Amino acid sequence: MPGADADITVINPNAQEVLSKKNLKSACDYCTYEGMKVQCAIDSVFSRGELIVKNNEFLGEKGRGQFIFRKPPF
């Protein structure tokens, strides 16, 4: 669709990771998935064509996001 932006997350299906507050970026002071082992890891994230996350490090500009209000489909 012309004018539509896409955010893309590239996942490494061969990686193993143990989830924790340390490796999950959140403003929350706890992680409900603490200690859970997963069979994949996020390699990189692209937003509006720009690489914003690589190797679990945020590379984008702070505040670049835009909240989009949703309306019910009916």
Automatic annotation (TrEMBL):
It comes from the Bacteria. One of its GO terms (cellular component) is cytosol. Gene3D superfamilies: Metal-dependent hydrolases, Urease, subunit C, domain 1. InterPro entries: Metal-dep_hydrolase_composite, Metallo-dep_Hydrolases_sf. GO terms for molecular function: hydrolase activity, acting on carbon-nitrogen (but not peptide) bonds, in cyclic amides. PANTHER family: COLLAPSIN RESPONSE MEDIATOR PROTEIN, HYDRANTOINASE/DIHYDROPYRIMIDINASE FAMILY MEMBER. This is Amidohydrolase-related domain-containing protein.
